[in-house]
Amino acid sequence: MKKHNFSAGPSILSNEVFSKASESVLNLNNIGLSLIEISHRSKDFVAIMEEARELSIDLLGLKAEDYTSLFLQGGASTQFLMIAYNFLSNDAGYINTGSWSVKAMKEAKLFGEVHELASSADKNFNYIPKEFNNHNSLDYLHITSNNTIFGTQYHHIPETNSNLFADMSSDIFSRNIDYSKFSLIYAGAQKNIGAAGTTLVVIKKSLLDKICRDVPSMLNYKVHVDKDSMFNTPPVFAVYTCLLSLKWLAKNGGIDEIEKKNILKSKLLYDEIDRNSQFEGFANIDDRSIMNVTFNLVDESKKEVFDKLSQESNISGINGHRSVGGYRASIYNAMPNESVQTLVDVMKKFENII
Ligand SMILES: Cc1ncc(COP(=O)(O)O)c(C=O)c1O
Question: pLDDT tens-digit profile of 164-174?
Answer without folding.
Answer: 999 999 999 99
